User: What shape does this take?
Amino acid sequence: MRFAQLSDWLSPILVKELRQGRRSRALILLAVLTLLASGMITLYAIGKDSGTDAFIALYFCLSIVGFLIVPLTAHRSFVREQEDGSWQVLQLTGLGPRRILAGKLASSLAQVAILSVAVSPFLILSHFLTGYGLLNIALLCAAGALMTGALTPAALFAATLPTTRAQRGVLQILVLVGLICGLSACVSFAMEVGRRGVDTYNLVASLWGVVSVGFVLFEAAAARISLPTENYAWRPRLALIVLLIGVTALGVWAHVRVWGFGVPGPIFPDFVDYSARNFHLLTVLIISAGALAMATEADRAGPPGHRRFSLFAPGALAGFRLTVLLLVASTAFWGAVAEPHWLPGMVVVASYPILYLAAALWVCRGLRPRALVAPDATRFVLGSWALLGAFVPWLLGKGFSAHGAAEEFPLALISPAVGYAFFDHPLPRGLYGPWVIGALAVLAGVATDRLLARRRADRA
Amino acid sequence: MRGLSRSFDALRALDDVSFDLEAGVIMGFVGPNGAGKTTTMRILATLDTPSAGTVKVDGHSVLERPDAVRPLIGYMPDRQGAYDDTSVWEYLDFFARAYGLRGQTRRQRVEEVMEFTGLTPLRSKLFSSLSKGMQQRASLARTLLHDPRLLILDEPADGLDPRARIELREMLRALAAQGKAILVSSHILSELSEICDACAIIEQGKLLAVGPVDEVANRAAGHAAAELQIRFVSGDRDAALVEHAVRLLSAQPVVAEVTADGGGAGVRARLVRPPPGTSAVSADSDSARLLQVLVGAGLPVCTFHYRRADLEDAFMSVTKGRIQ
Assistant: This one.
């Protein structure tokens, strides 16, 4: 089959963007620079005979492209297309929002794949320089591809949020910060693999979490760019329900099976010890992504029969209650199944989303500044608040603590990443800390519930 | 379109707008900025939902069956979008793929629309490097790819030079001759009166007039629908000539009012509004008869200008220049 015939079956967006990429100076320059850097790293490694460092450096180069430049470029082009109305005209052709996004995603993955293929000889060479095992290299590259596949929908989702020029400017900075966080997490993970080998179970759980969040944000972005005459509201909800049922069913099945046999499985010997904690973590991650994205579909006029279900619309209460209820249910269920020493960490994990959500709702619904009343603005506050809250306290903690351990700086515990890493430990740390955070979350939840109920009554 | 209304919070952008558009008819959609033209067109193109009312294209409701309506319409917005590093052929090929055209059918259709819009020589040029006029052509070509029955063109002549406007007009005429219904908005009223068979005038979301262009113009321009400007060879008898001409013309049943054209040997006559349905030929006969009367009376007519009320008169007459 000739390429022209084959291309009939490809996404039109993918074909268009590949054609554009052929002429894009920026992309050609990026490829040349990546290859040049890879060549220099390999030459340096050959001189030093250090394949491990060479692989990390090569992986870092690829990560800059795959986790930073490609998603950021997708974000920027999507913002521009939103401004000039390209999406809407495109949807009149019958190309639905999901196919538009899938095309964008495929185009991002294709760009990374092309660069990865170009760099692959250097990656393989790093193995022969006493570096990583070939299987680990393949596993990390596959994980990297999945990560790009999750970061790109997140960046595209972010592109659907801003409605004003100022918001677009702020959001680009936030997206950049978020992508840098993703990049550093992935490179740290690759280094960890070099030091300790692959922890398959945690790798699978992490990738599952990342892909789940990417999927929810993908559906939410599709709902946001859909035309008002379409009802896409149900898709993010369905995605959320499928993911929650999926993770719960798999967790229950695995536990019943493992306990049924009476011994830990041969593949994951520590399965029983921390699997419930991991399933809870996945559930909280999916609920949090859903909470951030859920309002996306619902805050605008829709076709007849379109039911609004929003977390952020003024007067909305059901969304908040449902989110809190799901978090509490997950903590109760998985907490009952888990080994008791994981419970404090599990309470903390569920408490942070409630605290962050409550803080955003109190700013936008309690103080009611005019600029933040709109649902989009509220979501914007929550997203920015969550991103900065995760990153800045951790950075401050690193800077102010004596030994470079972020959790030694008490304020750093504002960051869910620091808090979770600190309290999620089989040995008890900070005995009352988790319960204080849990109690704060309960208080914040109740207070926010009352506030939203008052607002709903005001509107009625 | 029946009883179409659209509100944005307190702002009523459209208020009970109703009109029909038949196949093969070019309808001009006229109104000041912010009148509701784009909102109407967006609803018709299934890009927005009305607060009330129904819109049907070929029997399909845009609200209930947008998926059935979309293949029937070609929408050209006032902004073309950015397509960097994309040639004209690639731009059209991309949209043809999006419309689901495959293989030879797609390639053939792209060639056809390029041929029709005169873009064939520019096929390899980058879209972003084209002039505004050529981008508009490419955009029009894009709307034709799936052979729609209704074209919705939002300010297609905006920013075009005179030549490009004339060419656009000819293309639209050709498309109407193919049986396509065309709704076109523009600020250039003279353009619309030459190109359109029908027009709709909208202001502050309210439809003020709708119908065939001549009819709307006549109806809207008031009691006297057309005007005559006559000048005589100037000399010492100017006052007497004018007085004689006024007397002669006033006696004619088709003349409503005659006045001396101040400062020279000339008169200005307003004609009686023709009854609805009067053809242009009949109006021309009236003016020819008046000329015959003047010349027959020995008056030295050197210019005789017959000006029918046009879209501009209609527009100025029915709109108040209010904005919202």
Notes: The mean pLDDT of chain B is 84. The longest strand of chain B covers residues 301-308.
